[in-house]
Amino acid sequence: MSSRVEPEPEKDKDWISHATYWERTGFEDPYGLGQQTEFAKCDARCSDPAHGAPSECILPIFHAPKSQTPSPASGYISQDGHQFACVDPANIRQAYHVVFVVDNSGSMRWGDITPQPTPILARLKSEGCDNRYGAVVSALYSFWKTREGHQVNSSSLVREDHYSVVVFDEEAEARVSNDWRLTTNQLVDKLIPQQVVAGYGTNFEEAIKIAHEVIERSWSSQRAPILVFLSDGEARIGEQSIRNLCNLSVKLGQALAFYAISLGLDSDSDSLRLMVSVAEQVFQAAPTSAKGAYKGQDPPCKYFSNTMTSIQLTNTFVKISKSLPKLSSIQLSNSLPKLRASVINKTGASGRHEKMSTEWEKGATASLTGAHQRAWDESRLYAIVDWLGQQRM
């Protein structure tokens, strides 16, 4: 053992396996064959915090470090020589919840900007969307198609990215909310034909309010939040509304990436620039742990103008799509120790020496750290118990 523990901390002590302990006691191992097999395995755990359940080394306990070459047919071998059946966390793609907030005011019906010649062009025209709004839907189609190729899990048709679309005029509503199953064409179906929410005005406050609700309701630590806000007009918005939304994301664990796109005159886009400025301030002030895949990069908060053609608009959406970091920035250390019953036990062998051990338990726990300290709350250490047993012989 690398740490010194009571009693007699000056004496070196070794970890022993479950099987060795029972062999030394001379008693029959009371555990079943299945448990004995589990106890005989290594106690290291994969360091990926995203695991919903423990993923532990499949090699025998106290094994020598295994070489990373050749690579196993499934799972991976860690840098410190442990083999796991799970996916290598260093290769896990970063997933996102992308919330699009789209202007649906009266001016979005103007026909000065029309959709790109994508595969959905005929549908857009037939649904009366040969206009600014249709150009946005066409750009969204290109964004989703750009992400589609590498965002489907190989074992299912479930996307890693989740999408929401908030449409607003005088009021706002979520036409798509935290979706991970719809195809790109099905997502388009949710947005056409162009339908009024509550009028032909432009209400940024209402749009951000609904986006705030969608993000909070759909929060997942597995997906970094991104908001893409598009409008062709000027509307007022309070700085605090944006700050509250951005602070919420930081509080929940991941700072918000914020992109604003002006489909109108740059001179009419003061509110869009304000939103980006506030989002950037909050992102920069966020703790490093909340910056996720953007750690060490410039804040992902940008304002885009000069998008008054369908080509420029589509290129902007595709640029945002391609700019998203592909790999998660999980800070991986060597494999984590997670003491299995191969080296600890709650009610079995250690219970035989409980009276003797409780006299110095407080002192012993003060010497333990990390996983050993956590384990102490549940069990006694075989290494210590074995030492006690030998003293009584």
TrEMBL record:
Question: Cross-referenced InterPro entries, in alphabetical order?
Answer: VWF_A (IPR002035), vWFA_dom_sf (IPR036465)
A Pfam family that this protein carries is VWA_2
PROSITE patterns for the chain: VWFA
SMART domains named in the record: VWA
Q: Where is the VWFA domain?
A: 97-311
Coiled-coil stretches are: none
Per its record, how is this protein called by name?
Answer: VWFA domain-containing protein
- The species this protein was found in: Rhizoctonia solani
